[in-house]
């Protein structure tokens, strides 16, 4: 337990001056680090096997929600002070007064762990970490078994994404699609690809054809522009969510929840 008396302590740099991107790349070619926020998110990361390196905790939380977390890791340094001091270090308001610096794990090859799955999501260039986190939370809640991301997506382990996901980024398997021909790779693994897009020849989301497909990859696009036209062209189906009152579309996170609920219904009922 280390009382903070020097705001320039080198051990505090990951919480104060290093960006999330710098933490991501700091140990290359080995996996880097990330900062997890709030006891629930940190607990799910620990349960998933992520290794804590240090804690930054508001004093009042030491006998509260953080006490159980700390009891399991007596060897890990805990830096503590009042909320005002911690927020001057981090530069943002700490929602639950608890941060944890953690080691990343090497990501598995996504097409390996997806071979026996039935419902997955693919995110193309979804750049807002809040949306990425919300999509993971919907995936976990509604039966999507994995999330694959293109290289243009925000990292699921960025602090805001993990917090918005309520820690489900540590429960739902995920990985990056590196190849440009990722739709072909999904087809070779036996997935039928469904592009969520507003097109004239699209199917309605509740078309019964879709729930009968054994292995389905639901493809969602970036905020604003949606999916690339080339991606839509290479998917097996284009699917739309019917709208009312002149609204043309939903935010990608909201659209994912609606799509996952409908397209995983058959799987949930059989399970």
Radius of gyration: 20 Å
Strand content: 15-25%
Averaged pLDDT, please?
92
Oligomeric state of shown chains: single chain
- Counted by DSSP, the helix tally is 13
Largest sheet: 7 strands, parallel
Q: What is the CA–CA distance across the termini?
A: 47 Å
Topology, pairings included?
Elements: E1 2-3, H1 13-16, H2 20-25, E2 33-37, H3 39-47, E3 51-58, H4 67-71, E4 78-81, H5 83-90, E5 98-103, H6 110-113, E6 119-123, H7 129-142, E7 146-150, H8 159-164, E8 174-177, H9 182-188, E9 192-196, E10 203-204, H10 208-211, E11 216-220, H11 229-234, E12 237-240, H12 252-263, H13 265-270
Parallel strand pairs: 1-4, 3-4, 6-7, 6-11, 7-8, 9-11, 9-12, 10-12
Antiparallel strand pairs: 2-5, 3-5
Helix pairs in contact: 7-12
Describe this structure in words.
This protein is an alpha/beta fold. The chain is built from 13 helices and twelve strands. It has a seven-stranded parallel β-sheet, with helices on both faces. Strands 1-4-3-5-2 form a five-stranded mixed β-sheet. Strand 6, helix 7 and strand 7 form a beta-alpha-beta unit. Helix 7 runs parallel beside helix 12. The radius of gyration is 20 Å and the shape is elongated. The N and C termini lie far apart (47 Å).
């Amino acid at each position: 337990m280390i009382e903070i008396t020097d705001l320039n302590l080198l051990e505090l740099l990951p919480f104060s001056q290093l960006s999330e991107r710098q933490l991501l790349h700091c140990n290359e070619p080995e996996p880097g680090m990330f900062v997890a926020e709030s006891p629930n998110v940190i607990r799910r990361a620990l349960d998933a096997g992520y290794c804590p390196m240090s804690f930054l905790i508001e004093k009042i939380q030491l006998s509260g929600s953080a006490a159980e977390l700390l009891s399991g890791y007596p060897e890990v340094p805990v830096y503590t002070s009042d909320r005002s001091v911690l927020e001057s270090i981090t530069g943002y308001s700490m929602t639950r007064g608890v941060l944890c610096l953690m080691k990343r794990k090497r990501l598995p090859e996504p097409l390996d762990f997806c071979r026996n799955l039935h419902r997955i999501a693919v995110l193309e260039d979804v750049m807002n970490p809040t949306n990425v986190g919300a999509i993971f939370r919907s995936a976990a809640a509604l039966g999507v078994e994995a999330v694959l991301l293109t290289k243009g997506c925000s990292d699921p382990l960025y602090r805001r994404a993990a917090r918005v996901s309520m820690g489900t980024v540590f429960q739902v398997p995920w990985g990056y699609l590196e190849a440009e021909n990722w739709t072909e790779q999904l087809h070779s693994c036996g997935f039928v690809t469904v592009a969520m897009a507003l097109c004239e020849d699209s199917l309605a989301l509740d078309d019964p054809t879709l729930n009968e497909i054994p292995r389905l990859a639901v493809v969602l696009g970036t905020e604003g522009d949606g999916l690339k036209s080339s991606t839509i062209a290479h998917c097996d189906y284009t699917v739309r969510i019917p709208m009312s009152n002149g609204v043309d579309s939903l935010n990608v996170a909201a659209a994912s929840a609606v799509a996952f609920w409908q397209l995983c219904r058959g799987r949930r009922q059989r399970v």
